[in-house]
Amino acid sequence: MSRGPIWIPRASRELLTTKPEQLAAFLRHHLAEEPAISLSVINGPAGPLYNVSSGGAHRTHLFRILGLPRIIAKLYARIPPRRFDVASVIDTAKGMTEAERVGHGWHTLLERGLLHGSIRYEGAFAVLDLDHAPAPWLLGDAALASAYNTAYERVYPGTLTELGIPATALTGRKAWEQWLYG
Fold this sequence. Notes:
Elements: H1 7-17, H2 23-32, E1 38-42, E2 49-54, H3 57-65, E3 74-77, E4 83-85, H4 96-111, E5 116-122, E6 125-132, H5 142-155, H6 159-163, H7 173-181
Parallel strand pairs: 1-3
Antiparallel strand pairs: 1-2, 4-6, 5-6
């Protein structure tokens, strides 16, 4: 089925004009059709964030727009590993300055209670042995952390501030970098 720009209005109209006895078939068709909706989920301190991985952006938006409470999807949990090295979260072509910067950021997050674990070094590269991260996306580079912070604030307003991240650090990538590395 084509999912161009007119799909959501057409599907909405179809849903709203479906007879009650045909509603179950309509929902089954749109929820269970191939390809299946795949969602990646990452847990955060107040609840999870979901990201449509494949097969369901239009259907997910349709159900959200119409206020329908559930969808059928395959969930793929993004669980952080117990061990991170700097090379796993940055493009190593960015060089040692970026590697040192990420290690410094991890120290800051540990000091501020936003990570639980320990940092050791293998040569010049920081290695994080992670016990717990209430917001695991903070371990990524500044662009990733800032994007997830923005999404998390939209879904769970004030939660990151309650963890100890000032609201000013959540306004964008540069503000995040200034707070984390400044």
